[in-house]
Amino acid sequence: MERESFEDAEVANLLNDKFISIKVDKEERPDIDNIYMNVCQMMTGGGGWPLSLFMTHKQKPFYSGTYFPKYSRYGMRGFIEILNFIIHLWENDREKLLSSSEKIMKALEQDGHKTGLDEDKLPQKLYAIHQENFDRIYGGFEGAPKFPSPHNIYFLLRYYQAYGDSGALAMAEKTLTSMYKGGIYDHIGYGFCRYSTDEKWLVPHFEKMLYDNALLAIAYTEAYLLTKNPLYEKCAREIFIFIEREMTTSEGGFYTAIDADSEGIEGKYYLWESSEINKILDDNDGADFCEAYGITPEGNFEGKNIPNLIDKEISDFPLFKKKLLGYREKRTPPLKDDKTLTSLNGMMIAAYAFAGRVFDDTSYINTAKKAVLFINNKLMKEGRLLARYRDGSAGIPAYADDYAYFIWGLIETYQATSDEQYLKTAVELTEQMEKLFWDIEKGGFYLYGNDAEKLITRPKDFYDGAVPSANSVAAHNYLKLSLHDNVYLQKADDIIKCFSQNHPAQITHLVSAVILRKNLSKIVISGNESIDGFPEMKKCVNRTYLPFSLIIFINGNEEYKTVENRATAYICKNNSCLPPIINFEKLKSIL
Description:
This protein has helices at 2-6, 9-18, 30-44, 79-92, 94-108, 122-133, 150-163, 166-181, 210-227, 230-246, 274-281, 283-292, 318-328, 342-358, 362-378, 400-417, 420-437, 470-482, 489-499, 508-519, 534-542, 584-590; strands at residues 52-55, 61-65, 195-196, 204-205, 208-209, 257-258, 261-262, 265-266, 336-337, 340-341, 380-381, 384-390, 393-397, 521-526, 549-554, 568-573, 576-577. The chain contains 22 helices and 17 strands. It folds into four domains: 2-108, Glutaredoxin, CATH 3.40.30.10; 119-259 and 338-517, Glycosyltransferase, CATH 1.50.10.10; 261-333, no CATH class; 520-590, Glutaredoxin (3-Layer(aba) Sandwich), CATH 3.40.30. 49% of the residues lie in helices and 10% in strands. Helix 11 (274-281) crosses helix 12 and helix 18 (470-482) runs antiparallel to helix 19 (489-499). The protein is globular, with a radius of gyration of 25 Å. By secondary structure, it is an alpha+beta fold. The strands form six sheets. Strands 10, 11, 12 and 13 form a four-stranded antiparallel sheet that branches.
């Protein structure tokens, strides 16, 4: 649509003559995108991007849609025709448009459909939905297009842990393995693309998003913890290699996305001909690589090839991949969205800190710490968090998801470093988040703050779609913080109560919070690296799948003393703790 209409002189003249045209970056302004995407879904029954929205000068919408060709074709109304139709109505029957906008405004103010389900039954209900929608051949849920939706994996792993249903773990593992083997994963340069256009995970939409890779790195790390399958550790580490190479800024933050197109062709940068690979690797090595990764003279996508391991044994040719990557980097690369968003950086901080703790990799933890410092230095103004940084300039008051994700990252960094400053900052930002976003009357967090620009409505984001919502993440944050201070437990309960009546498939990550609420625990290891038993206990805790626990390492205090000058573990649940544990094997058994 950009090429067909927005760069077209005929369309531009019509727009500039009769309309005020506003182009919105949906990631910089999720508040605007959320409101008007809801409008589009109400009016058309669907949504997506590009989002085309027509409104009055008072921001009240009256017509909406997604993609329109320049001229009408195949039953689709053309953009030129739509523009002329709206101009005609505005000049000759304006009341009709204004009346339509008022009806839309009233619909926006109504609550959505409520299920009436008891929140305690949400996990079982959501699990049944996943069982029904699961693709048992290729993994994932429902048909094409298929999205990674990592919070589905989080839920299944937690469901298995809490209820012992092996089917949940099987669905998670099938999906994780199938995604890795598919073309949605970049087997040459690593990292995941946005989604798969087919059910096999073969043909991706080639755009790479920071949020997908952050959340998937966490999913693969969690799956490794639970299963000890080395493939999952390998995949998580490869994601970080990609992030460090292509999406990390010189200042320590992370870029937002890499485009799908290069030279005007989607995926061109990532596609291969078999003859090309044979030339780069020589015939014998090239033949081995092509056989392993499903590369043929005929191709598997528009005459060329997307490397993949579908229906193949998992292979790895690191030296071959290095050569191919070096060759690929000489091509014209896709454009990079080089803004830095607090929300997405918060996710990646959480991923690095968590993986650093699990894999005992200080370089990952240091990356997380550097990114936290970047946000503190560049995206804070007079104590107020900001949403976007680019070219040395920060701006836009941060949204609820910026706060929620960054707090998540701080909590993970605290667990990875034992540095209480990260916990202190998390608590301070949580209190600020409440003041700016909390709905005192009905509960839940609004999308934008009470100090931000006022729009036609003030939505609350609860839908766990491409990423978990701010409210779902906040519920998890409050539950983890409640293990530090019980005062936070009520707010977590308020969020769950506020949104638990929505359809379970819309609130997957919130349902994970419901499971967390029932199984909350705190694990404190008292001691330091030089004290007997501490390294073993630390490694044991960090290498065990403990999704319902806050992990704290302290150098002994009045509340959590060391016993017999040995590392001592305290496991606490429901406001009470087990007797101190100094025997490593006993700790391992209990965990």
